[in-house]
Design brief:
Blueprint (H helix, E strand, L loop, with lengths): L1 H21 L5 E4 L1 H7 L1 H39 L6 H54 L4 E4 L13 E2 L1 H8 L3
Parallel strand pairs: 1-2, 1-3
Helix pairs in contact: 3-4, 4-5
Length: 174
């Protein structure tokens, strides 16, 4: 019985050690995708296109707002005149409501348009970057690669390798 206990104890102690040595080592890497995207020239050109579109939409929005303010001031002036008929006031109120609806609709559509355009412009850039990250991770045997720009990593060990220089090299960036 004593031999059985010793045998089970030896097996119990050696099993975790052998399973530890039998496993492949985990290789960790990290990078800041914000830095990577900033280094990619495509990001600058996409940002310029997006800013130009935003500026054009902003100009149109300001023009609509000026038109609304002018109509509103005309309405206020009419309400101060005692000879203005109720029909004219009601018609002007309806014009104001219609114009206000147009302004709000334009604003909502402009925001959606910018969001859609941003997705169209930046998706290929993100796909290119992700393909390079994946290629570098595979070529260098990384088990996990963490994006520290996401803010979910609160500790980076010295064993974790910053692969940003490798990905930049893969993309031909400085």
């Amino acid at each position: 019985m004593k031999k059985l206990i010793v045998f089970l104890t030896v097996i119990g102690l050696t099993f975790p050690i052998s399973s530890t040595f039998g496993q492949n080592s985990v290789k960790l890497g990290h990078l800041n995708t914000n830095e990577l995207f900033s280094a990619m020239p495509e990001t600058d050109s996409a940002q310029r296109i997006l800013e130009k579109s935003a500026s054009e939409l902003q100009t149109t929005m300001e023009e609509l707002q000026v038109e609304y303010n002018k109509k509103y001031q005309e309405y206020v002036d009419l309400t101060n005149q005692p000879t203005t008929s109720a029909l004219i006031l009601r018609t002007r109120e309806e014009e104001l409501q219609s114009l206000n609806t147009r302004v709000q609709t334009f604003q909502a559509q402009a925001e959606q348009d910018l969001t859609d355009q941003q997705s169209r412009l930046f998706q290929p850039i993100q796909e290119k970057a992700m393909a390079a990250i994946e290629a570098v991770a595979r070529e260098n045997g990384f088990t996990y690669v963490f994006d520290i720009a996401a803010g979910s990593i609160i500790f980076t060990s010295d064993d974790s390798v910053d692969i940003l220089p490798l990905v930049k090299a893969k993309l031909g960036l400085q």
